[in-house]
UniProtKB/TrEMBL annotation, chain A:
Pfam families: AzlD. This is Unannotated protein. Keywords: Membrane, Transmembrane, Transmembrane helix. The chain crosses the membrane at residues 6-25, 37-56, 68-99.
From TrEMBL, chain B:
Belongs to the AzlC family. The lineage of its organism: unclassified sequences, metagenomes, ecological metagenomes. GO terms for biological process: L-valine transmembrane transport. This is Unannotated protein. It comes from freshwater metagenome. It is found in: Cell membrane. The chain crosses the membrane at residues 22-51, 57-81, 131-153, 189-217. Pfam families: AzlC (PF03591). GO terms for cellular component: plasma membrane. It is a multi-pass membrane protein. Keywords: Cell membrane, Membrane, Transmembrane, Transmembrane helix, Transport.
Length: 101, 224
């Protein structure tokens, strides 16, 4: 089994387990305000870190290339309140354009 | 009776509009997944079995960038933790057991929970309907669009040539954007980007992302 299969099956198994456990345990176990507060923050840090790493790194090196231009355009699109598909498409198009120049 | 069916119609309309819009993101996932080195089958299985957008993007993002399977799974699972808390919120509302609980748990995601909670003023039946309609609706469209996106990317070839390598971070940005409600959220987001980049030359791929969880823990656990 290669790394991709491990990724697919491991992620799927844990994703379902987390959902099912949530449906099955008494509410008091996780309703603590500190857990609730942290729960809101975790997606913010992980998704932000992914934005940075996917844009400015290649393996373990920092790098500035065409992807940064794509991200800049995505940022502008979000400021202009563009819907998600437009954000992604405009980033892809501008990055591809720079890649071919 | 007329009132009941009218409410049902409104709930169905809310659910469908969310399902189609969100489902369409599936195309971006399918394309990104194939560009990251996953096969069409693996991409579709992620959408069918993991069925949680942010987690799916995370695992293909981390592994695609050279991270280990464990790093990818860990990042995805940290993002999937919130679905557990949604389940906790939905369980007393749905009151389901056995196979129905398995199915209900599987479709417990941002959107099904969000639509269910948004129906509160229409009563508990509307909340339940909102949950199921949206859960199934997103599931159907998300998987169809994943398949389309995966085949599309396979036909394209070099991902960078089509800008797919920039589409992935743009997708993450689009996912985090609505969560940045206060200046503290924005400062946290920028800190996370900085921390992950500073750690990148020193840690194996994937770990700098997971390390930023410490920022969230530090801030969340300090809250009274």
């Amino acid at each position: 089994m290669n790394i991709y299969w491990w990724g697919v099956l491991g992620t799927s198994a844990i994703a379902f387990a987390l959902k099912y456990i949530g449906h099955s345990i008494p509410e008091r176990y996780l309703s603590h305000p500190k857990i609730q507060a942290t729960n809101v923050l975790i997606p913010i840090v992980l998704l932000s870190a992914l934005v940075g790493v996917q844009t400015f790194t290649e393996k373990t090196q920092l790098i500035l290339d065409h992807r940064a231009a794509g991200l800049g355009v995505a940022l502008i699109a979000l400021f202009l309140k563009a819907p998600f598909p437009i954000v992604v498409l405009s980033a892809a198009l501008s990055s591809a354009l720079l890649y071919h120049l | 009776m007329a009132v009941v069916s009218n409410t049902r119609g409104l709930t169905l309309r809310d659910s469908l509009s969310v399902s189609i819009t969100v489902g369409a993101y599936g195309a971006a996932f399918g394309a990104a997944s194939v560009a990251a080195g996953f096969s069409v089958l693996q991409s579709c299985l992620l959408s069918l079995l993991t069925f949680s957008g942010a987690s799916q993007f995370a695992v293909i993002g981390v592994i695609g960038a050279g991270g280990s399977a464990l790093s990818g799974i860990t990042t995805a699972s940290l993002l999937g933790f919130r679905n557990g808390l949604y389940g906790l919120r939905m369980a007393p509302l749905l009151k389901i057991r056995g196979v129905k609980r398995i199915i209900g748990a599987h479709v417990t995601i941002d959107e099904s929970t969000g639509v269910a909670l948004s129906q509160e003023s229409r009563g508990i039946d509307a909340m339940r309907q909102g949950f199921w309609y949206t859960g199934f609706g997103v599931f159907i469209f998300w998987n169809l669009f994943t398949l389309a996106g995966a085949f599309g990317a396979q036909a394209m070839g070099d991902p960078a040539s089509w800008g797919l390598d920039a589409a992935v971070p743009a997708a993450f940005l689009g996912l985090v954007w609505p969560r940045l409600k206060t200046s503290v959220d924005r400062a946290l987001a920028i800190s996370a980007v900085a921390m992950a980049l500073v750690l990148t030359p020193f840690l194996p791929a994937g770990l700098p992302i997971i390390a930023t969880t410490l920022l969230a823990l530090g801030m969340g656990l300090r809250k009274k």
